[in-house]
Amino acid sequence: MGRMHAPGKGLSQSALPYRHSVPTWLKLTSDDVKEQIYKLAKKGLTPSQIEECGQKCPG
Fold first, then answer.
1. 37 and 54 Cβ atoms separated by less than 8 Å
2. Among 12, 54, 2, 49, which residue's Cα sits nearest to residue 33?
3. Helices in the chain by DSSP H: which ranges?
């Protein structure tokens, strides 16, 4: 479906391409992240709390 008062169909024209490489400033490996998730899960945190901690305290 198109827009009523515009010629476009509402698709974003400025979408950035997905990067497949890891940022250079990131020092954690995937195994380190998994370990951290397992530790937080054993403490009894919910998945949303684990995700929040992963964003705020990456080290």
1. yes
2. 54
3. 30-43, 47-56
| Residue whose structure tokens are 């009894």 | 44
Separation of CA 57 from chain center: 14
**pTM of the complete model beyond 0.85:** no
- Condensed to tens digits (0 to 9), the pLDDT of residues 1-14 reads 566 777 767 666 66
- Structure tokens given for 9: 């169909």
Average pLDDT for 18-45: 87
3-state secondary structure of 36: helix
Residue 51: CA count within 13 A, CB half-sphere: 3
